[in-house]
Amino acid sequence: MLLDCQGRLVDNDDVARVVEDAHRRMQSRGRPSLSTAGESPMLRVRLPRELAGAVDRAAHNANQSRSEWVRRALEQTVHKAG
Hints:
Elements lengths: L11 H16 L21 H13 L4 H16 L1
């Protein structure tokens, strides 16, 4: 017999609800996907210090995060390239 902190009997349905809740919370962790089909791929690049600083300044001036600014710049460049 298992009792909760208030002395109530804990049954299998209670355990199943707690497990489902924990599973749902674990799945909802992290940032939301940017892709419509699930996971957003991550692209890591190395930049010269000067270029990284210029990106940071441009993002700050645009009132955007670095990631937002880089995504916008890449979208514009890809669109122009056709």
